[in-house]
């Protein structure tokens, strides 16, 4: 089954949005298979955002991500990467549609509440950066026979 890495960033944790956000993905029918609170060490932030390390916004991004604990998750489900990216909305909350997480809960591009992997390949890479294999569970949800045709 497809998997993705989602992370509620420090603003989402501090603003008390963890429950609301997790509930949206649960109600969609996606399956939470791993989760932890963590203050990310610098090396993991550098690795996670390596594609942005030379961008002008990187120093601000790094200090924001390290400003408090994040809530890291692995979610599973059919087409989970594209579904969660749609539910998260555009990178810039000013352009994110109402009904998306960023559209409903954020105002500015830097502090946009949540990260989600943007491809299956990125998801594999990011899950491996943040989780050990044994931290990821495997189970059946009782409602799966009413979710999958
Ligand atoms: N970001 C920023 N300024 C920018 C672009 C991005 O502060 O001009 C931050 C923002 O928090 C974003 C993250 O860097 O979520 C990673 O950017 P990316 O383009 O990968 O967007 P995402 O995949 O998170 O939508």
Topology, element by element:
Layout: E1 3-8, H1 10-14, H2 18-28, E2 31-38, H3 42-48, H4 58-65, E3 70-76, H5 80-88, H6 101-105, E4 114-116, H7 120-130
Antiparallel strand pairs: 1-3, 1-4, 2-3
Bound molecules: uridine-5'-diphosphate.
Notes on the protein architecture:
- The structure is a single chain.
- With 149 residues, the chain is α+β, with helices and mostly antiparallel strands.
- It has a single domain, classed as Alpha-Beta Plaits (2-Layer Sandwich).
- 38% of the residues lie in helices and 16% in strands.
- The protein has seven helices and four strands.
- The protein has a four-stranded antiparallel beta sheet.
- The longest helix has 11 residues.
- It starts with a strand and ends in a 19-residue tail after the last helix.
- It binds uridine-5'-diphosphate.
- The site of uridine-5'-diphosphate (UDP) has 9 residues, from loops.
- It catalyses: a 2'-deoxyribonucleoside 5'-diphosphate + ATP = a 2'-deoxyribonucleoside 5'-triphosphate + ADP; a ribonucleoside 5'-diphosphate + ATP = a ribonucleoside 5'-triphosphate + ADP.
- One of its GO terms (molecular function) is metal ion binding.
- Its cofactor is Mg(2+).
């Amino acid at each position: 089954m497809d998997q993705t890495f989602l992370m509620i960033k420090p603003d989402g944790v501090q603003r008390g949005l963890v429950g609301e956000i997790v509930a949206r993905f649960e109600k969609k029918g996606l399956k939470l298979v791993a989760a932890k609170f963590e203050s990310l060490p610098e090396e993991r932030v550098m690795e996670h955002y390596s594609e942005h390390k030379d961008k002008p916004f990187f120093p601000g991004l790094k200090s924001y991500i390290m400003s408090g604990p994040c809530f890291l998750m692995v979610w599973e489900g059919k087409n989970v990467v594209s579904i969660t990216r749609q539910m998260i909305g555009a990178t810039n909350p000013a352009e994110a549609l109402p009904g998306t997480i960023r559209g409903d809960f954020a105002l500015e591009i830097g502090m946009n509440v949540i990260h989600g992997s943007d491809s299956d390949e990125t998801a594999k890479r990011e899950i491996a950066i943040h989780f050990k294999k044994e931290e990821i569970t495997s189970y059946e949800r009782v409602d799966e026979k009413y979710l999958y045709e």
